[in-house]
Amino acid sequence: MNVRGKLFGAMAVLVLFVTVFYFGTTQGYLESRFEHYSKDKTSGIFETYYKDHGNSWEGIERMKISNGMGQGSPDQREISLLSTDGDILFFKGVGDPQSLIQHGKQKLIKINEIPVGTIFVDRWESTEAHELKIYVLDSMLTEGFIVPALTGVIALLLGLWLIRRLTLPLKRLIPAIEKMAHGNLHIQIPVSTKDEYGKVTEALNHMAKQLMRAEEVRKHLTADVAHELRTPLSIIQCQMENIQVGGRDVPPEILLPMQDEVIRLSKLVDDLHQLTLAEAGKLPLDRKPADLVLLLNRIIDMLKPEAEDRKIEMICSYQASTMIVFLDPNRITQVLYNLLTNALRYTPHGGNITIRLTNSFHEGSRFAVVSVADTGAGIAAEQLPYLFDRFYRVEEARSRHTGGMGLGLAIAKEFVEAHQGCITVASEVGQGTSFTVYLPFSSDSKPVHDLS
Ligand code: ATP
Ligand code: MG
Asked: What region does 391 belong to: left with phi over 0, alpha with psi -120 to 50, or beta?
């Protein structure tokens, strides 16, 4: 059964319940009102008699009780009055007054709060009032039923119209969801309402966009990996074919480029593995207190020979002589190494690289701030948003031997974020580029996205 059917079923049950309940309570209420009225009226006759006769039942046995409505047929009720001593003072009816006293309805008569007798009746209504009651209740059961039945039918029709209206957006959503399920992610469903349906539609549109982006990333990743593998593999293949054709000993100048390519391939596989782990949030981190000054100096010492060769000056400016931060030294060394090798690679002869180490506060947490600024060619503003994407390289030529694979910054970003830190870039074409890494001093700080 579809939602419309279920809603209609629920509504029909509700309408039926309300009709029956209303009908039942109205009948019961009317009946009790009749009884209450007649009870008061009957006891009123006796009370009036008692007061009119000087607070005495003197001659009550001769009292005539007319029908409730005053005229017509005589009242056929059985009525008896008992004194406070239990004597029968009045009896009207056929049969045994004792049986009426035992089985009939009773009411204590009080005058000025003092009991003066008890009346017993087989029913409270007079014959005519009883007939009127039966007539009214019967008419309610027959003709009176038409009104609630009609109201119920109208309520159901109105409900049907409302259900159709309320479920219409859902009906519109289903074909779009089915298309998405079959892989058509280019669908954007128009958001026509601001209610929950509107929110669901917005969430679906957002989900479709995300899935499309994930699908594109996946396709690009496969294409990029294939592209990166193709060149070194074809170089190796070509060299090996030459060796086979030559049929002589392999000289080192042939073997060395092959080894270079194998090293590049191993690095690519390793980088991709690290990146995938970090993106999936499964990067194992061995965080411990480590001195950032020491880490930076070690990397700088490693890169110094290359910098000196290319006449690039490396300037260090540290706020303190030690800065102990709770981090994974291997991962952060990799981050800083990637930034510094980039700076070296993309800075021309005679340029300089400035490495600064400071600290800053953000939302109650203290951060170590490492910035690497170079005087290289700089990066155009429109390229900056993609810089941390995997395999993204700015150079149009994407020459494999002058540049890298385009994974260094993606890895740096993932590793820094795994430490609840963030990395930012600022660049000006012709002036240089500056990367800044923010690392929280402790591991319990909230993740940050941009502190610049
Ligand atoms: P890999 O690091 O994987 O060996 P890569 O250095 O090309 O390769 P990333 O470190 O991710 O890759 O850098 C991406 C791109 O950003 C680089 O190809 C380069 O075009 C640009 N880039 C990075 N750092 C700088 C910089 N300091 N100055 C100018 N351009 C830079
Ligand atoms: Mg790099």
From this structure: left
How far is Cα 303 from Cα 309, in angstroms, rounded to an integer? 10
Ligand 2 centroid, distance to 223 Cα (angstroms): 20
The closest residue, in CA terms, to atom 12 on ligand 1 is: 406
Q: Would 196-279 and 288-440 be classified into the same CATH topology? A: no
Tokens of 201: 């539609």
- pLDDT value for 321: 94
How far is Cα 47 from Cα 117, in angstroms, rounded to an integer? Answer: 10
Percent of the chain with pLDDT over 90: 37
- The class level of CATH for 288-440 reads alpha beta
Residue 353 above 90 pLDDT? yes
**Phi/psi of residue 383, nearest 5 degrees:** -90, -25
pLDDT recorded at residue 74: 67
Pocket of ligand 1 contains residue 15 by CB under 6 Å:
no
| Ligand 1 pocket, residue 351 CB under 6 Å | no
pLDDT of residue 452 exceeding 70, the answer is no
Q: How many CB atoms lie within 10 A of CB 92?
A: 19
CB atoms within 10 A of CB 140: 16
Q: What are phi and psi of 427, to 5 degrees?
A: -150, 150
H-helix or E-strand spanning residue 74: none
Q: What is the 339 CA–ligand 1 centroid distance (Å)?
A: 8
pLDDT per position as a tens digit, 390-424: 888 886 544 545 567 889 999 999 999 999 999 99
> pTM for this structure?
0.59
Nearest to 197 by CA among 168, 176, 220: 168
**Which atom of ligand 1 is found nearest the CA of 407?**
3
SS3 290: strand
What is the residue extent of each domain of the chain?
1-184, 196-279, 288-440
Q: What's the CA gap between 313 and 103, in Å, rounded?
A: 118
Backbone angles phi, psi at 390, to 5 degrees: -65, 145
Is the Cβ–Cβ distance between 42 and 124 less than 8 Å? Answer: yes
- Summarised one tens digit per residue, pLDDT across range 339-348 is 999 999 999 9
Cα(408) to centroid(ligand 1), Å: 7
For residues 73 and 101, the model is more confident at 101
Ligand 1 pocket mutation, candidates 227, 382, 394, 395, criterion most atoms within 8 A of CB: 394
Contact 152, 14 (CB under 8 A): no
**Ligand 1 and 376: CB distance under 6 A:** yes
Q: Which fold has domain 196-279?
A: Helix Hairpins (1.10.287)
Distance of CA 212 to the CA centre of its chain: 22
